[in-house]
Amino acid sequence: MSEEDYTYLFKVVIIGDSGVGKSNIFTRFIKDEFNLDSKATIGVEFSAKNITINDKVIKAQVWDTAGQERFRALAKNYYRGAVGALVVYDITNYDSFKNAEKWLKEVKEHAEPHLVTLLIGNKCDLEENRAVKTEDATEFAEKAGLGFVETSAKNNLNIESAFNRLVTEVFETLDKVGGEEDNTTTTTTTGKPVISDKTDTITIGTTKKNQQADSGCAC
Ligand code: GTP
Ligand code: MG
Q1: Residue 45 Cα to ligand 2 middle (Å)
Q2: Residue 43: predicted pLDDT
Q3: Model pTM?
Q4: Which of the listed residues 15, 17, 20, 24 should we mutate to test ligand 1's pocket, taking the one with most ligand atoms within 8 A of CB?
């Protein structure tokens, strides 16, 4: 199968405060890498990976945005066309959790109308420094109508399953809103084509839907 052989292209953005671990979630998912000394992202980066759901190959085009305030206006431009968003906070940083609401509002304003969002409590390997209770995040996610999972990019915990869950939910939303299948055009949940610079995306591999570890952290 060619790397460009996919049925849908879903644009997914990773957002949240600076330092919560977005870039490491991104690199863990795309190339199974983690960096303890990663630098703050300047602007935005994107890459892609294929996921197979119900025998359909979905190309998840993932955009890692900068959390720093000075890049905020720029990052918003990249929300356009997104059908999925990972809203990330750091379980050791309460402010980053409080700010999740702000990020959520911002992405909803700029992304596709049927945007699917998942709240991610990252760094759950740092249990001894925990500042955000799992129950509080669960309650917030339930009220805001989004899924929730705790992850560790460092220990590679729940990273792949979080992306699989998000993409599966986008796929199911697409099914509900009656998007048309098309093998040649990339499609959003609204059935509208999205612009994809295929030369800049890399498909790393094909992953089967992963049903495990929907929420919580088993660090
Ligand atoms: P900006 O690009 O500034 O928005 O930050 P970011 O959200 O991309 O954070 P980044 O991925 O660069 O991670 C910030 C710091 O947290 C780095 O030192 C990472 O090594 C560390 N980090 C990221 N994920 C984890 C994790 O799961 N556990 C632990 N212990 N550290 C992590
Ligand atoms: Mg970053």
Answers
A1: 9
A2: 86
A3: 0.85
A4: 24
